[in-house]
Amino acid sequence: MTSNLEWKIKRFNELSLNELYQLLQLRSEVFVVEQNCVYQDIDNKDANAIHLMGLLENEIIAYARLFQAGDYFEDASIGRVVVAQKNRTEKHGHTLMREAIDAVEVYFNTQKITISAQLYLQKFYESHGFVVVSDVYLEDDIEHIRMTRG
Predict the structure, then answer these.
(1) What angle do CA 134, 124, 31 make, to 5 degrees?
(2) End-to-end CA gap in the chain
(3) CA distances from 58 to 49, 53, 78 (A)
(4) CA–CA separation, 119 vs 104, rounded Å?
(5) Count of beta carbons in the 10 Å neighbourhood of residue 35
(6) What's the maximum distance between 2 C-alpha atoms anywhere in the chain?
(7) Residue 24 and residue 32: Cα distance in Å, rounded?
(8) 80: closest CA among 126, 139, 132, 133?
(9) Is the dihedral of CA 123, 121, 19, 12 positive or negative?
(10) How confident is the model over 49-102, as pLDDT tens digits?
(11) What is the mean pLDDT of residues 100-111?
(12) CA distance 96 to 7
């Protein structure tokens, strides 16, 4: 499947104000409003992350943030994986994960990745080579599992 998204990768200090606004808006729309979860999305970790953005007609509709080993987990990590609700039928989530995994390998020179995954997305992440390495735990009142790859 070929993605029709334009992919951008930027460090925090390279983000434009418009990009920062759009990515925070997308994260809020999905993780706070859609999932009905009151939590602090702006967590002082964005400055250390590399931001992967998938744009469709200049709108960020897919996003993930990437961390080198030691910044979030012992291994490199991918987090805040999100696709706008209106664009999910196009399977951009799979393209986003492939782009994120490739970026971790390029930027951090590792294939070892750990994530904190929402439990209902276990099969999605397994399809990208991740395996469960923890029991279910609550994070912001949502069931999560730790998964690793590589």
Answers:
(1) 80
(2) 24
(3) 22, 10, 23
(4) 23
(5) 14
(6) 40
(7) 11
(8) 139
(9) negative
(10) 999 999 999 999 999 999 999 998 999 999 999 999 999 999 899 999 999 999
(11) 97
(12) 9
Helix, coil or strand: residue 3 = coil
Residue type for position 16: S
Q: How many residues can be counted in the chain?
A: 150
Q: What is the pLDDT of residues 3-62, one digit of tens each?
A: 689 999 999 999 999 999 999 999 999 998 988 888 888 899 999 999 999 999 999 999
- Per the rule left: phi > 0, alpha: psi between -120 and 50, beta: everything else, 77 is beta
Encoded tokens for 111: 């294939």
pTM value is 0.94
Q: Are 80 and 72 in contact (CB under 8 A)?
A: no
88 dihedral zone (left: phi>0; alpha: psi -120 to 50; beta): alpha
Give CA separation, 122 vs 7, 65, 125, 138, 143, in Å: 25, 19, 5, 15, 11
Phi-psi region of 128 (alpha: psi -120 to 50; beta: other; left: phi over 0): alpha
